[in-house]
Amino acid sequence: MSWRMEFQYGVLMFCFLCGSALSLARDVDHIVLRDGDGESLNFLVVGDWGRKGEYNQSRVAYQMGRIGEELGVEFVISTGDNFYEDGLTGANDPSFEESFSDIYTAKSLQKPWYAVLGNHDYRGDALAQLSPVLTSKDNRWHCRRSFTLTKQFRIPSSPETMLADSSVQLLFVDTTPFVENYWKIPNEHKYDWRGVAPRSAYIRRQLQQELEMGLRTSNATWKIVIGHHTIRSVGVHGDTVELIHMLLPILEKYDVDLYVNGHDHCLEHIRSVTSKLQFLTSGGGSKAWRGIGESADMNGLEMFYNGQGFMSIQIGPTNLHATFYDIDGNVIHNLDLDKKELHHEDVA
């Protein structure tokens, strides 16, 4: 199976396992990659960026390249709104090169880019971003409506300490179809719902057959869900009501650690007041400075940065470290989580 196949009814899973050889296991909806030393998983997160280098997109890209080199990142995640203002006109739209290939040129960024679609992407030819034509032009580009990435950590044991196997699972969700306002007719904008309509069936398939099944059967130590739209945000877009009602209960039910999104053009960290879930917004890839919403719910707010920037996430067997960077590459906020309960002292 290759990226040329359409996965409308399955979850696309990438499994990064320890080992020195790179192999590709083929299945109906399952790609397995074996590579790396198994010690950690390092990646960058950027969203709301595609403006042909304008609105400081190029400056953010430069700092991403620098930080990516320092951390030795394995890939980059895009939280959507990949091409402004109205997505791509087709698979041969020069905006793909002008906003992506020609901007993110640093050596450290020549790694896979895993992208979800944002609402601005749906305002153009949404299928173009899913097309293998783009991957043939730039083999970094991997965009799907929903898919999963998994990395397994093999932790050596010793006579003194026994460590359970650990893993991280990242589940990507297509959130734009959830927002009811985009479906209204007449609408200010036209949305490309090919492969999505009818809305209710598509949402049910995403939640029940893909996301919930993936979480229910997961034994991952770390569970991270990525989507474009906010669940919680104090930015101008604010909370997304549909996701609070439909997506949030699933994330809390299966003890998801992070929900990572874009949509609001800022950097943001909100701590859930009802569960261990952390909400991280990385939507500062280009145009920003829109401020805090007038009726924002400030409960759980840990950090809000009204400007451009990006995130890095470093995950080890028992610890997770997320860092927010501004346009000059300065650290503006850190989040540290640990799961030391994985360490079991041998008392025999």
TrEMBL record:
Q: What is its main location?
A: secreted
Q: Where in the cell is it found?
A: Secreted
Entries under InterPro entries matching the protein: Acid_PPase, Calcineurin-like_PHP, Metallo-depent_PP-like, Metallophosphoesterase_PAP
The Swiss-Prot or TrEMBL record describes its family as follows: Belongs to the metallophosphoesterase superfamily. Purple acid phosphatase family.
Q: Give the record's GO CC terms.
A: extracellular region
* Annotated binding of Fe cation 2, by residue: 81, 119, 228, 263
Gene3D superfamilies to which the protein is assigned, alphabetical: 3.60.21.10
Enumerate the cofactors the protein uses: Fe cation
Q: How would you classify this enzyme at the top EC level?
A: hydrolase
Per its record, how is this protein called by name? Answer: Purple acid phosphatase
| Details of cofactor binding | Binds 2 iron ions per subunit.
Q: Which residues of this UniProt protein bind Fe cation 1? A: 48, 81, 84, 265
Does this entry carry the keyword Transmembrane? no
Record's signal peptide: 1-25
Taxonomy of origin reads: Eukaryota, Viridiplantae, Streptophyta, Embryophyta, Tracheophyta
Q: Name one GO molecular function term.
A: metal ion binding
Give all residue intervals belonging to the Calcineurin-like phosphoesterase domain. Answer: 42-266
Q: Which UniProt keywords apply?
A: Glycoprotein, Hydrolase, Iron, Metal-binding, Secreted, Signal, Zinc
Q: Which reaction does it catalyse?
A: a phosphate monoester + H2O = an alcohol + phosphate
What EC identifiers does the entry list? Answer: 3.1.3.2
